[in-house]
Amino acid sequence: MSRCLEILNEVFGYPAFRGLQADVVEHVAQGGDCLVLMPTGGGKSLCYQIPALERMQRGLGAAIVVSPLIALMQDQVAALQEVGVRAAYLNSALTGQQAFQTERAFERGEIDLLYVAPERLMTSRFLELLDRSKIGLFAIDEAHCVSQWGHDFRPEYIQLSVLHERFPSVPRIALTATADEATRNEIIERLALDAARVFLASFDRPNIRYRIVEKDNARSQLLDFIRSEHQNDGGNDAGIVYCLSRRKVEETAEWLNTQGVRALAYHAGMDADIRQTRQEQFKREDGVVMVATIAFGMGIDKPDVRFVAHLDLPKSVEGYYQETGRAGRDGTPANAWMAYGLGDVVQQRKMIDESDADEAHKRLSTAKLDALLGLCETAGCRRVRLLAYFGEGSQPCGNCDTCLNPPDTWDGTREAQMALSCVYRTMRASGFSFGAGHLIDILRGNKTERVTQHAHDQLTTFGVGAALGEPEWRAVFRQLVAYGLLAVDHLGHGALVLTGASRAVLKGEEQVTLRRYVKPVRSRQAGAKS
Ligand code: ADP
Ligand code: ZN
User: Fold this and answer.
1) Geometric angle at alpha carbon 139, from 135 and 140, rounded to 5°
2) Which tens digits make up the pLDDT trace of 154-208?
3) CA–centroid distance, residue 21 to ligand 1 (Å)
4) Which of 5, 6, 14 has the most ligand 1 atoms within 8 A of CB, as the residue to mutate?
5) Helical H segments across 311-453, by residue range
6) How confident is residue 427, by pLDDT bands cut at 50, 70 and 90?
7) Measuring from atom 20 of ligand 1, which residue has the nearest CA?
8) 11 phi and psi, to 5 degrees?
9) Ligand 1 neighbour 302 (Cβ under 6 A)
10) Could you tell me the pTM of the whole model?
11) What phi and psi values does residue 430 have, to the nearest 5 degrees?
12) Taking residues 322-334, what's their average pLDDT?
């Protein structure tokens, strides 16, 4: 039996490796560099902990684990100490005296795994400690923090390539759950891992059921979802509800509490100790719903989160995958639920336009948003679409909304033409463009004050779309924007303008297939509970 497997059995008490773990630990134990891409819950920690112990046993030295979050580090160290591994950490939570003692113990070879924050690792004091000690392995956890495009970016991570220059013979293992190709390449380049082997696990999370519903009244849709699938006599399941703004986080949490759902708010505008307390409550108590911005993220290792809900659209497919990935880490059924509407698209486009980023970054952000809109609007399997984004092929899953209730599609060419010509005619008549609400009033023939004020009831498109209801029209406009047939103008009022692609549709050269609008109903669909 391999020594690594022995360590897995004897120290950790697990009978067998999972997935790629066996290959990774052998590779690293033998001194190879590697990059490990594995989804959250895939078992990344053992990938470096086991070779660390194996190499220590062979007298090759201790492992240094670079980890960006203090809370994460402390949990890992506590878990290792519990099974008898000599683990310790160095971070700003320690007093000078405690740090000094840990450093001495490390120098004496009394520590197998030493966790450090990247900013501490780069200090000359720490690098000198490494020079004086025997080092058997460098593990770089959450390696996507080197990526400048990602929202977890840590400038200190970029300097980690120094490790390789200073200690060329010590093997390195970098790990992350962010797998899109751009991030992967950035990690390899910035950490100088071009000669490293890449271990890419499947990113499928088969126990998560993906569902994206049309936003109608998002709050009450959320409450329906929680009540029908995540509430029972004893209270509610643990879950996370993501919102875009701090204000919406607070309002939603407050409102859920008045509706009998135990909810806490969490965002970066709160004091650190309040955030800490709430994170602990979420982790330790049963049935807490955390309503949060994406500030509540990395390092949430609660295994029994039964649902992740999005009241606002994330920025990218990676974001959606990471956030929904916090559900069901224990492997039992969990729900990823999102309400999405035209307003979300307008809002995200506006945020990109108004950001201080340079043009290249804005183009990239737009492309990322478009990929996510493609996932939202797909009539095919969500999982196939999601995995394809990470370069992984798969078959329809049978466990997402579109597999369970394949959406109807219809030939919306005529309606698309009505909508586009309405945009064109209002623009020509008034000299500026309008938002979807006003355009829909014109199409449906509503003589609102605004319509008469602009004499838009005189347009040839007035009333031509009376056969469709308001929500149906919203769905048409949303899809036209998602498909790039309409764009949100740059002034930030949510006004819609024609694009280069609109012309072919207006001229009848291009067909438009749309997903049929489904009226939100109280969901009785089998969820995580049944
Ligand atoms: P990640 O860091 O990839 O999100 P973790 O390393 O935290 O995942 O592992 C997730 C869970 O799976 C942990 O509870 C861990 O103990 C468990 N686990 C990992 N590998 C194995 C294994 N080979 N056998 C049994 N349990 C495992
Ligand atoms: Zn599916």
Assistant:
1) 135
2) 889 989 988 989 999 999 999 998 877 888 999 999 999 999 999 999 999 999 9
3) 10
4) 14
5) 317-324, 342-354, 359-377, 382-389, 401-404, 413-430, 436-444, 449-453
6) very high
7) 43
8) -85, -45
9) no
10) 0.80
11) -110, -15
12) 92
